[in-house]
Design goal:
Number of strands: 0
Helix content: over 70%
Number of domains: 1
CATH class: Mainly Alpha
Order of helices and strands: HHHHHHH
Distance between the termini: 43 Å
CATH architecture: Up-down Bundle
Oligomer: single chain
CATH topology: Growth Hormone, Chain: A
Number of helices: 7
Strand content: under 5%
CATH superfamily: MFS general substrate transporter like domains
Length: 164
Amino acid sequence: MALATIQQELGLSQTAAHWVVNAYLLAMTCLVALGGKLCDRISRRATASTGVGLFATASLIAGLAGDGGWVIGARAIQGTGAALMFPAAWAMVTRAFAAEERGHAFGIMVTISAVFMALGPFAGGLLVDHASWRWIFWINLPFCAAIIAMVLLAGPESADADDA
């Protein structure tokens, strides 16, 4: 629903509209292994914070975009941010929980992700209907701020040079 609205409002071709989705997926898929390597080389916290920061910045840009090129570019940056966030989150959970607790911790993590993925289209539809398609991007900003605060407050940590 949001994609059709973005396509219409920005005058995107069908192909360009698909790139609004594909740019995110392509960037995330191609860069997620790099995100894991950065966790090992730099640190999980720095990688996670950078990823969330990129995602938040791109969300702001996408919401402000006046043409399709900006939305597509911002979506690629969001995908890059996600490629840093996901391996960092998994690595942080692995480090934070004992082996016997990790299955439960990962289960909670996956459940939260699944709930947000399931609610996303519904919430996006409400935002498009009652506000603007731009809010499907801007709604990410308070979540990103909360995640960065949690990551930074999690305490000191460093890279695992042995794992790199």
